[in-house]
Amino acid sequence: MMYRLGQLIVGFIPLYIFSGWALLFVQPQLEHHALRAIAMLLGGLIVMAIIQGIIFKLWLLPSWAQAIGERLYAGNYVPEDDPIASLAATIFSQHRPDLIPKLEKLVLADSSRTRAWLELARALEQEAHDISLAADALQRGAAAVKSKDDRAMLLWRASILLLREKGREEEAKKIRERLAGEFPHTAYGRLAATSLSRG
What we know:
Number of strands: 0
Radius of gyration: 24 Å
Largest sheet: none
Order of helices and strands: HHHHHHHHHH
Structural class: mainly alpha
Mean pLDDT: 84
Distance between the termini: 29 Å
Number of helices: 10
Strand content: under 5%
């Protein structure tokens, strides 16, 4: 969230510069050279709009589109539209743990997608019955995805899985300590901090 806000603030730098220029250089001329001031204002506005449009088209919109795509992929999707989702659906419906290596290969080829790591971890947990590998997949996913919220969510789920494994409680605790330290402003970071304070 803070990253997106920072992007928005930086993205509007041309607007800030234009506003300052208009106040400092154009406004003083309005009284004595109104037509010149208006021409300068319109010219500056056109230049600012062009620069602002380029920033939005080449930087902000692609970044936001990717984030929205990841969110959509993390939520509702049609399996037939995506090879990872389609393969995961086959693994779960037909109980085919032998297809998990193929799923992992697809996930690694598109490792920035949060839902892909969730599907891989679920397959390892439910179909391969290997909680340890599932937790490891979630931690690898946390290192690969870009969103802080998604990274925190994957780490939190990894800690939950590790708590189900005998003798892995300390690892789960370390993950939650990392969550509280590195992602304090995310929901899962706060959740981790609360769980640690309760012991």
